[in-house]
């Protein structure tokens, strides 16, 4: 396929020879022009280091165009470097390639770069584009995956008319809560020792802060601490004001016998250990309120691939009265909701766990599809509407939804996801659909018909962990240098349309992997560095409760420890830094929807620098992943920042003056700097 997405492998930018760099050195010595642009000319050599395009606001006038909006694209080159440029795009409506000649438009404010423009005509069809750039006999190609000397066959930029992702998700900061472990707001609903037995395990009530492991081997899911929705409500001031996060994502809250609630017993009932449906209404209203901080948004976890075996549709243990479940009788009205190979004991289940029988979605219009999302009384639509009015669904194990007990990730799965999107957007066009997938989520996010974004394990969590902690997100040894980190980020951004990139959930830890603080060996400075990156990178920063202070923890269930409220305030240095960094992100749209440009990678000294910019601000971020202080010389000329300009480091308040096209800033080990013009 011409637009098959592949990881960016990285390529050293072509530069002209020794003469150019001698000229550059002479210019630096003389205090004059500080970039290779002074040597750029029509010399049959395209200077790759001057090429730039992304779909930030300075380079794409309609990132989310309607079918009637033409899209004008801007390409940056070194001044006087090229002789012509062309946009080549594939139109899915005509199943053919087209070209648009670009014309010189203007120079950047410093006179270092030229801007070339071209316009792709309006239509309703999805398109993919790349640039062909000429300097005489020399040709370079540029697309989302990078620059090449021969025409690429993958990695193009996207244009998807009519597709938008929610602005509140792109511009927000999300806080993920595992409800039982966050805060106990009402002891009246606490699960008690031996309150009930499920799958051979009696419930255990543990004291807050004690071990997450059960006293009985194999019964960890029966351990409860008392966290609940009232507790979340009571701590909204911490989330919304102390931290500044405005999106709450709750792990499952519906009736279930386990502490994790991924084995749903009843989608329409909030688990009594967490409160009631009325408690959820109150919490949603308080999250949405501006009386306790910024307006907030609520995302619930939708576990729709499977139910629990105690669900009334299945009813393995005859817990329900007045209804006959599929496990009880082949004549059950819900027998067709599941796939039995040999009724009743052999059936399709999530990863083979018999406690989680898979739902059989059947054909379009089936009873299961209507019950989950298709009808006005479905699970998905009910909670999107008043009195709950939640703002989005996180779709658990979303790739596996299928018919006849299949494994998903096929045409039926994509049909289900498209139908679900239609249902969600029919109730609230501004609601978010966040899918769980651990690899390249392109199949669900590049057609404009399924998810708005995904859990960004592949494009954030894994590379950040490997670069900063030297371990993958499972805790295995895996270290990468800054240059590979940058290439990884570049390649995974290229997998998605820009508005999807901006709505991806970027988290350091989750309920499914080891804690970042544990992988960092308890070094809080590594958490500091990770927070700098998380709050300045492309996507929605997502804090798994406790990561803001470096909570420790290994694999499940150790990654679900109780929140330590003795450090849940700005007297804790990491929490204070989180507050500061979120405030900076909230203050600068360039950090949310601006362009991203790599400025520097230094593998020897473990340094990384990049720019985020829009028409209002140009921001350079400098990160030091070494254990000692380094002075990082940031080439801000690449951001068109003029000599003599002043940049303010937003955490410390220190002001720097640009000289010779660059700024030098001393950055502590495992720390960062954010320089804004």
From TrEMBL:
Keyword Transmembrane helix (UniProt): no
Signal peptide: 1-39
Entry keywords, A to Z: Glycosidase, Hydrolase, Signal
UniProt-listed SUPFAM superfamilies: (Trans)glycosidases, E set domains, Glycosyl hydrolase domain
Keyword Signal: yes
InterPro entries: GH, GH13_cat_dom, Glyco_hydro_13_lg-like_dom, Glyco_hydro_b, Ig-like_fold, Ig_E-set
Gene Ontology molecular-function annotations: hydrolase activity
Domain Glycosyl hydrolase family 13 catalytic, chain residue ranges per copy: 176-585
PANTHER family: ALPHA-AMYLASE FAMILY MEMBER, MALTODEXTRIN GLUCOSIDASE
Name of the protein this chain belongs to: Glycoside hydrolase family 13 protein
